[in-house]
Design goal:
10 strands, glutaminase activity (chains A, B, C, D), homotetramer, alpha+beta, Beta-lactamase, five-stranded antiparallel β-sheet, Glutaminase (chains A, B, C, D)
Amino acid sequence: MDIQALLDGIVAELAGRRGEGKVADYIPQLAKVDPNQFGIAVTTVDGEVYAAGDAAVPFSIQSISKVFMLTLALGKVGEALWRRVGREPSGTAFNSIVQLEHEHGIPRNPFINAGAIVICDLVLAGYKPKEAIGEFLRFVRSLADDDTITIDRAVAQSETATGYRNYALANFMRSFNNLQHDVDHVLGVYFHQCALAMTCRQLSRAGLFLAARGADPIGGYSVVSEKRARRINALMLTCGHYDGSGDFAFHVGLPGKSGVGGGIMAIAPGKASIAVWSPGLNKVGNSALGTVALEMLASRTGWSIFGA
Amino acid sequence: MDIQALLDGIVAELAGRRGEGKVADYIPQLAKVDPNQFGIAVTTVDGEVYAAGDAAVPFSIQSISKVFMLTLALGKVGEALWRRVGREPSGTAFNSIVQLEHEHGIPRNPFINAGAIVICDLVLAGYKPKEAIGEFLRFVRSLADDDTITIDRAVAQSETATGYRNYALANFMRSFNNLQHDVDHVLGVYFHQCALAMTCRQLSRAGLFLAARGADPIGGYSVVSEKRARRINALMLTCGHYDGSGDFAFHVGLPGKSGVGGGIMAIAPGKASIAVWSPGLNKVGNSALGTVALEMLASRTGWSIFGA
Amino acid sequence: MDIQALLDGIVAELAGRRGEGKVADYIPQLAKVDPNQFGIAVTTVDGEVYAAGDAAVPFSIQSISKVFMLTLALGKVGEALWRRVGREPSGTAFNSIVQLEHEHGIPRNPFINAGAIVICDLVLAGYKPKEAIGEFLRFVRSLADDDTITIDRAVAQSETATGYRNYALANFMRSFNNLQHDVDHVLGVYFHQCALAMTCRQLSRAGLFLAARGADPIGGYSVVSEKRARRINALMLTCGHYDGSGDFAFHVGLPGKSGVGGGIMAIAPGKASIAVWSPGLNKVGNSALGTVALEMLASRTGWSIFGA
Amino acid sequence: MDIQALLDGIVAELAGRRGEGKVADYIPQLAKVDPNQFGIAVTTVDGEVYAAGDAAVPFSIQSISKVFMLTLALGKVGEALWRRVGREPSGTAFNSIVQLEHEHGIPRNPFINAGAIVICDLVLAGYKPKEAIGEFLRFVRSLADDDTITIDRAVAQSETATGYRNYALANFMRSFNNLQHDVDHVLGVYFHQCALAMTCRQLSRAGLFLAARGADPIGGYSVVSEKRARRINALMLTCGHYDGSGDFAFHVGLPGKSGVGGGIMAIAPGKASIAVWSPGLNKVGNSALGTVALEMLASRTGWSIFGA
């Protein structure tokens, strides 16, 4: 299979649709991004990297970071983590607070905002916010094997200044005793985590362990157990696209996690880790063109986990 | 891989746990079932059948029938079906009506009761209830290659007499014009569909086309397109276990559909179709022992779709 | 105070606004009513009757009937009635089902549809539907001292044929065991009760006992105790206008009950019983012009219960 | 009518029930209050003051302060206030956030926490928090004609430190642009307002204008227009006891506002202003004994607004 040709073909076919969707504007800093960009990269389990389009342009990975932070937190606290966050699709928007009131401050899963905030609280145990952010950054850099990856402070500040909804979620969970640290500290970690800037190439590299039974096939070391890798993939499949998770599974058929920056990381177990990016979002807040590109790729490679 | 030995081992290991969970009692006829039964069957894509325990005892497949009815309806109306039912996990119980009020009578997916009722309405187009039920029965018999499969009329009557919640759902959707036929007719089809009695052997045989790219590998004919088979599997993964779908994906990692009769049908794409049955249900209404058995099987075979 | 002059003045001032609002169209029979009609009648506790506009034209009183049926039911079962229906404003639409799911089939109050259906179930105890309807009709006729009052069968049939939402509510409560009779029987009573046709004159006369400490000051007999009259008034104030009850209290300041036929019955305790009718409804489903007229009347008479 | 004898009788009859209910413990400072206290005071429109029990003991008036702050805000911004807060009962708990998500950040009424926070935001326009608190304190002192009334700083600090739920509500509304000032500033005003300490005597005096057509009958000056006084009373009746407002209207029949400190202020229009206090709360968060005492008083005086 000529993956490079596949990616080039997808970029060419979608050239006329660049700019589709609506760039997220509730985070001021994100609203400034050029909507016509589109990149895609694939890192296979045997270590090959393929890329096309704007695959070398850093973008704000936003909620995709939740996969890495969950991985980090599971390494620290293990399965006890699930006492404080669920594993079910939410059936509501990424920033909904309704479910929290009905379910006593326990978020439905670690990939909606509330759940990711609880994960930050867990990672903070015994650390100062700066230390926790530092550890997270080092973890992602090691996964991507690239020390140039940085956090975009302007984005982090932009969210700190305007992220009222996240302050609401955090304070709400605090009132149910499902946060143990200072709300400002927890959100400090959360906003910085979301502000991680990565390219499609870096992102597809960083997710490779999830396609390769939990081990990094290039570096040759284990990141998580095979079982844990499967479980993280399962969570991405059922909960990775907020209230569009069912549709993404239906159309693409790969575990994936999207971010409002327009990025999506998708995993083809045993095959490859994929990153795609285009800033315009569809109605449920996932990259419009990115979703289309992944559907094309999954269909043409036969990588869907729901086929033979 | 010695599948027969695997099944025998699972049956032996779980012998001491028979009777776990709580038998559904809201349908009087189901409450009478002996809770200590447990059966499992696997039909592989190359046509081999393995079975252990009470795999030849017929049970009420209940909601598992929704997979077959959806398949039948997609064959009739195609993708237009999705104008009247969604494809997202519900985040609520199987018989919740809250979501319907918030989303104007459009059920979240075809595997919750409301969604399955809409599917029955679609299948009724141009038919009388008896004809629609007849067509459905013939379809399942042909999938299972077994003309002895029947509908348990006592169960159907039991549900007709006491299924107030389903009458509520149907009338509610009718008020939003999302049912086109008489409520009694639609529910007549629905209750008879749910009352289908099958053994684990028959059920695993009937699901085989979903494991085999949409074609029946034994009969050698196409049931649905490869794409449609993938999509039905995706729906089972995200929505097949009501508000326990995320957990089932997390622990088992296979597309599956459960019924309150205690049965679960699971699909390992490219590998096999699996049926398991034990009447006791867990907290979210899925077979307690059946779920455990599937987790054991998926783990020991490596069939999880989230691994390599 | 010259009440007749007041009423004439209101009719004259509102002449140019006749036809405001939107006639209820979900009950086919109601959609045919001439929207330009407007009537008002006042019966004082010393037995005087004042009327203006179309006060002698019968209209479908719809939900206003819930006040009379509640009164009848309280007479039969007493305060035990409150075990099956609450006394709180619902904060939702008149036909919402969401609250019922969250609160286990117990309706918030007797003036939303679900609550009124439970009241019908209570009144049915020991009776056939026809007998219960007959008893209700006799009760209202005696309150209004007018044997010519009838039920509009065409309206009742229209609702029986299209009232899917009410069938949903009734079946839903039945599933929670909060209905004891056959759903069709209960709704038969409910639809006939709502189809009562009365004029403003008759309606203001029928409500007089609520303005007069529970006794009929003209007939000179007791209908309910003084305490019960106060409590029914309190319920009308907090729950009588669905999700517009707060606004009605704010603007008019009188206990009242509206119906989708465009009628409103309002009570000025110690002063008078008032009926107003105009078919066009405002956004929350209460008579648009009727509400305005009552605000004018309450303001000019000083009858608001919130003033001195 | 010998009001003093009535109050003495009520205090005597309830002596054996002191301590009923559950003292609010979510605000640490309030949890320390002696639960066996009970006081009642009545100030009539002709200027007489009657008191019994612990009527001279200051307590934290908490949410009762919302009535005074609303009055102050209406004086500043007039009816435009209603663009940012509704006038309907909520049908939910005092601190629910669900409604806010469904209704885009507009609280249902000014007497639930969210609504009162918006009112504080309005009062802050052009002021610093300290100035706004100062103005509020002067306003209440002038209403009560008592300059010794103070804010209990320990209570205010206790709430500032632990009021996560209110921080959640405020940030949530800020995300919908329904707060214009800094969340900390708005809540600073809110927490200080709630921490007002008053005795039953002072409180019944301060509410007198609402019983007397908006004017202070003792001081002889107008506080609000007669119409506005009626409307504030209407809001207290429909929304003054959270999700127990319907029940309070049913049993007591007077406009009233409760606070979690165990106080209730009730208004008998044209008759008197009443304050009662006992720390133990009933299930919906209103003073258990206070409610009983008011029901006795309203019944024995005939002051219910729903009677003649």
